[in-house]
Amino acid sequence: MISQFYILSPRGDVIIRKDYLGDVPRTSSETFFRNAKFWKEGDGEAPPVFNVDGVTYLHIKEGGVQLVATTRANLSPSFVLEFLRRICTIVKDYCGFLSEDAIRKNVVLVYELLDEVVDYGFPQNTATEALKQFVVNEPTVVAPAYYQAKPLFSLSKGPTGVFKSVLETTRTDGKRRDEIFVDVVERITCTFNASGYIASAQVDGAVQIKSYLAGNPPIKIKLNDDLLIGKRDAPYGVSDSSSNGHMVVLDDCNFHEVANLDSFDVDRTISLVPPDGEFALMNYRTSHGFKPPFRLQASVERDPNSDVKANLTLRLWCEVPSDKAASGLEVEVPTPRYVQRVHCDLESSSAGGGAGGG
Fold it and tell me: Which superkingdom, per the lineage (predicted)?
């Protein structure tokens, strides 16, 4: 059973708190933030699950806020972490976006959702569609800040329709909105060697769907005919075709429970009845050859003014084609604790985004 649930701001302030069992001190949020902020073991970030004085803390971070569950029971960590992910999805479905500002402007709505999702510490139904019949509060939709500001590299803004609430189903003329958004979201992990060449690379992607269709009608989604998935499609020539660049090759994938794959192996068509809210229709992974959108090169030089210091220079090149757009881009470069100074330079001659730091 979950003893407490709360959402913390980046500063450690409690935005939302629910105490279900009363067996964990109310100061647990301060204990969590202090331990997570100044985690000592290995000088790294706090793990997603840790125990302090008999209380287990499980947490995730999304949208700039931290969602935390505490318990004294012997619960499955993966179950609780998945439950926290589901809370993130529900908040985004009903508030339009997950951020500190969005939660503060929809506190009553979030509390109403939590009352339906958890009873006496036991997680209940977390399906967005099932919760709609119990929700009476209207949301205040807040668009993410990086869509309100000028994006990096002067690229165009992305779509804002996906930040609507599932409760926003009608236009001003009273007619029902019939919209569906399909996004392909990919996370690229690359390891560069000292010469700046890629040592290893992997793409973890998902086909995300957010539906505002009236009556949840059945739909079909068609993928590439030249899509090959893992060893199952090896007899069709994965190695030869992929090396010539004629195939989209995935190492493996999995599908949402609503996906009907009866004809997927024949014509790469997925049939489904999309539920309300956002969900991942397909998750996939590939390590086959692709060109990453960035190049990174590192060099170390001895400091001429010191016998014990060295200068580390990281050069990052953006290779996003000029006809493509991106927004909300963040570049994070971890450095050792003994680094004294860091500065970043943006070359004015490179509109595509060549940057160097020392």
Answer: Eukaryota
